[in-house]
Amino acid sequence: RIERVPAAVPIPLRIQHIGCARHFVIAVAADGSLVTWGRTTHAPRTRRSRDAAVLATPHVVDVKGTAPFVRAVCGDHHALVLDDSGAVWSCGYNADGQLGRDMDEQPDRNLLPIEVKEEARDILCGKWTSGFVGATSRHLYAFGLGDRFCN
Q1: 100 burial via Cβ count (<10 Å: 0-12, 13-18, 19+)
Q2: pLDDT tens digit string along 96-140?
């Protein structure tokens, strides 16, 4: 259904931050948990998304034992999430290395932490790239298809 006037989305959680990929949305709730909806092909795994191709309503992402999340950003088919300890997490399409781990043609829907040189202050995603700003150095760390970093 197309809404021509802003309307409240029936989400049972208060939203703190939100990111939108081509086919899915990931949001950080005020309590630090994550929810997602849309196509499940590249979106983070939820209990419901194991059986569904599309989540029409928000569902909680399956991540256990983590610090609360504070920020979520999306590229074309991937997402990065930042927790309040400065750890960076990723999931989705990774053919260009945009998840910050070994490249793979198959999407990885498991939201996993990536190895970073220092704690992150902020995160970003481009179409085929990702990056973060170091909390101490304020350096930009980039990964993925580097010659298209700003695309």
Answers
A1: buried
A2: 899 998 877 677 888 889 988 899 999 999 988 999 999 999 999
